[in-house]
Amino acid sequence: MTRARAPVALAVPAIAAVALVVLPLAYLVLRAVGGGLDAFEVLQRPGTLTLVGKTLALVAAVTGSALFVGLPLAWLVTRTDLPARRLIAVAAPLPLVIPSYVAALALLGAFGPRGLLQQLLEPLGVERLPEIYGFVGAWLALTLSTYPYVFLLAGAALRGLDPALEDAARGLGRSRWGVFRRVTLPALRPSLGAASLLVALYTLSDFGAVSLMQYNALTRSIYVQYRSLFDRTPAAVLALVLVALAAALLVLEQRSRRGVRASASGAERPPKTIPLGSWRWPAFAFCAAVVAFFLVVPLTVLVYWSARAVELGRGIAFAWEAALSSVSVSALAAVIAVVAVLPVALLAERHPARWTRSLERLGYTGNALPGIVIALSLVFFAANYLTPLYQTLALLVFAYVVRFFPQALAGVESALQAVHPRIEEAARSLGHGPVRVLATVTVPLIRRGMLAGAALVFLNAMKELPATLLLRPTGFETLATEIWKYTAVGSYSRAAPPALLLILVSAPFVYLLAARGESDVSAPG
Amino acid sequence: MKKAIVLAAVALFGVAAGCGGDDAGANGKLVVYSGREEELVKPLFDRFEQETGIKVEVRYGDSAELAATIAEEGDNSPADVFFAQDPGSLGAVEREGLLAKLPQAALDRVPERFRDPKGHWVGTSGRSRVIVYNADALSEDQVPDSVFDLTDPKWKGKIGIAPTNASFQAFVGAMLVALGEARTRDWLEGLKANDPKRYEKNLPVVEAVAAGEIELGLVNHYYLYLAREENPDAPVANHFLTGKDPGALVSVAGVAILQSADHADAARTFVEFLLSNESQRFYVDEAEEAEYPLVAGIDAKAGLPPLESLQGPQITLDDLGPELERTLELLNEVGLTT
Question: What is the DSSP letter of B276?
């Protein structure tokens, strides 16, 4: 089979798409460097080091707690005779539908000053609860939003594990704990590694939860710098620091994926169910506590505050207009993203060459660009050079496409990999032109992959907060900005209804994607 | 399939554009960058739209943030009007040379003390800084008479501030102008050492005082009335400082027109509207808060000390503009805003 050289009609749009994706990062570098040495002085401030330290501390803590919650849960649900395991298996990953800033809102509404718990305890003379703002609040909110990754990935790995290994170890006289430590855990390491890095990257790029909890992570500090200083170049420099950290995590993740061929199970038989014995109920209590705290409590709090709005005589002002705005810009971003990745994916898959591979890699730049970074760069760029687009929906949609380009690309690529080029070649040999083949053969065959990619982009754009805040047209409100606006001033009864609405709209997509086994279903707010 | 996608995209774009609210009113539109909170000023904007048929698009944000945004945008700014919470932000934009001269008739409606001498911005309502306190925890004579007493360790963890808010920054700026950098830095460091609770805005500070989370808060006087609106029995009260204490700063919210305004006529109409007797009376009769009207002959809401009786530090308000950047740096260096 001879590979045709990449046709120009494919190369041009692919290069153009990737160039646009890389633009925000490129401009940010230019701006930071153009600011001269003064801007880099921000790196020497003692505060900057503290900032990086605080960010990494949060990343480490959230990753640790997500593992601590997600792994035991996954093991209990897949391998033991835990009571109500089916129910827990369904409920445990559901917090995925709760964006980090909604988690923060729920935690504040429950445990914050003037929150639900405070009101309940007031008659008992409790005037002050332990502080939820700061590290603790950000840590809890982000653990809530991220432990499902560990749960899903570890659960999948546990199910795919060859039980023969464990049986053999048991047969050799190892204790149950010994087997877990010496056999199961090492076999899980690759997927735990991947899940940890996913959690770490999520935490690093999260803007919503840390801001609402007033924890000074890098993302929040970039926003504060941007808002309050006249020379905004230091914000650009800090954004580059954030990009560097994210890139470092991505490199780690690539490494961890290399050589991962976890002992693929040849065995058809399911693993033996491990009887928990007297640990059955304590284990159940643990699972129930996790589900209660991370799912039932937040939802209850949101419902309570929505109902409070009615009680205060305001009625539930469901932000329908904001919901429509969210849905339409997100859908637009989804469609454009999928169309834009198509030439890139086709080039990389059908015309493999060094340059097409590099182009494809560059398409994944968005993964290392937290929303706040893209937003900052585009504000700078558009306010100075692209005035007609400044504060327009077009620019906002563009930001979404850049940010979520990787998700669309991954979806389309994996679908293309499943379609053998021979099918297309056969169509070509029947005398159809390339465009016709693309439209009548390839696209219909990869339809599902394109839809999945579009759904991912849609879902993440719905929840996106920082870029939406900075780039939206004047007067344009989305569900995310409504939630943000009211949570920031502690008006929980106004923030809760749009939050519930956001969860309701996102839930079906999360469910569908999680059911398809997509691990990377959710980006931070 | 492709056709369907294209059609869907076109349809979506239509919907999205519709949501953007690009449609102008019967008599054109006006783009306002408002550092004043939506809750406070929305009724004014609504009335302006009704009376003039001009559609107002408002971008809300912190005054300093919007000032920095305008500076970044330069002549490309989509804004016609900058409605700011403090003279510092207005002055900062003025220094960039981005403001147009206001009509003299509009300027003359407000005492000189409350407007830019060069005529680039004009105050629209006045306020005094106060210490708001929890009346269950403290009696008024226990409340400090000077902000300098707030560094006393006995207030540790009991003070609330909103350091990213323009009115707090204006107050620190006034201290900087009146007393110099060394004393201001000392005070800020002393305050920081007392672990003040930090809030995004003034109103949450007052609500926290009302809820007993903290005992004292540094805010503008009128937020008390907003908090009472939600909770009439809240045990909160204002303590007005006397003399030249920086904590007694009397300042204004003000308005300016950008030189690059695309809707300059509408902008002038808007400024005149804000200074009309009806709009000024809004602060006395209708508004939930109780700001001081600035136009002569309209008295403040009953129960407030008369504006003329309030002194504050010896500065002029247009001194605050040049100092805003330095003020923000100082807050940043001391670590109150990071």
Answer: S
Position A2 scores a pLDDT of: 43
Question: Across the interface, do B19 and A224 touch by the CB < 8 Å criterion?
Answer: no
**Residues B12, A332: C-beta atoms closer than 8 Å:** yes
Top residue of A395, A412, A440, A474 to mutate, by most chain B CBs within 10 Å, is: A474
Question: pLDDT digits over B297-338, tens only?
Answer: 888 888 888 888 888 888 888 888 778 778 888 988 888 876
Q: Has residue B295 been placed in a domain?
A: yes
* Span B23-41, average pLDDT: 83
B179 and B240 share a domain? yes
pLDDT confidence band for B1 (50 / 70 / 90) = very low
Superfamily of domain A1-32+321-476: MetI-like (1.10.3720.10)
In this structure, the strands spanning B216-220 and B159-161 are parallel
The residue-averaged pLDDT of A420-428 equals 87
**How close is the nearest chain B Cα to the Cα of A450, in Å?**
12
For residue B309, tell me if it sits in a domain: no
Q: Which of A342, A515, A238 is nearest to B2 (CA)?
A: A342
Is the pLDDT confidence value at B16 over 50? no
Question: Cα angle vertex A17, ends A14, A20, to 5°?
Answer: 145
Domain boundaries defined on chain A: 1-32+321-476, 35-319
Instruction: Give residues 213 to 232 of B whose Cβ lies within 8 Å of A.
Output: 213
The separation between CA B21 and the C-alpha centre of its own chain, rounded to angstroms, equals 26
Taking CB atoms and an 8 Å limit, are B13 and A332 in contact across chains? yes
* pLDDT value at residue A268: 55
C-alpha distance from A331 to closest chain B C-alpha (Å):
7
CB spacing of A47 vs B73 below 8 angstroms: no
For chain A, the 3-state helix, strand and coil shares in percent, each to the nearest 5, are 80, 0, 20
- DSSP notation for B304-324: SPPGGG---SS--GGGHHHHH
- Does residue B79 sit in the same domain as residue B228? no
> Within an 8 Å CB–CB cutoff, is residue B207 touching chain A?
yes
Which pLDDT band, with edges at 50, 70 and 90, does B4 fall under? low
Which uninterrupted H or E stretch holds A311?
A: helix A297-311
In this predicted structure, what is the pLDDT of residue A433? 83
Residues 6+ apart with CB under 8 A from A218: A51, A52, A55, A204, A238, A241, A242, A245
Q: CB A383 to CB B76 under 8 A? A: yes
- For residue B207, what are the domain limits? 127-249+321-334
A-chain residues near B200 (CB < 8 A): 488-489
Q: Residue A180 has what DSSP assignment?
A: I
pTM: 0.82
- What's the pLDDT at B145? 92
Q: Partners of B251 in the beta sheet?
A: B127
CATH match for A35-319 among 3.40.630.30, 3.40.50.300, 1.10.3720.10, 3.40.50.2000: 1.10.3720.10
- What's the average model confidence in pLDDT over B60-88? 88
pLDDT in tens, A438-477: 888 888 889 888 888 898 899 889 999 999 998 999 888 9
- Compute the distance between CA of residue A141 and CA of residue A214 in angstroms, rounded to an integer: 12
Instruction: Write the CB contacts of A83 (distance below 8 Å, at least 6 apart in sequence).
Output: A280, A281, A284
Q: Which residues from B are below 8 Å from A113, CB to CB? A: 208, 211, 213
**pLDDT category of residue B11 using cuts at 50, 70 and 90:** low
Tell me the shortest Cα–Cα distance from B57 to chain A, in angstroms: 6
d(CA A130, CA A118): 10
CA dist B150 to B155, B158, B211, Å? 6, 10, 20
The answer on B22 and B81 residing in a single domain is: yes
Q: Which ipTM score applies to this complex? A: 0.71
Residue B302, chain A, CB below 8 Å: the answer is no
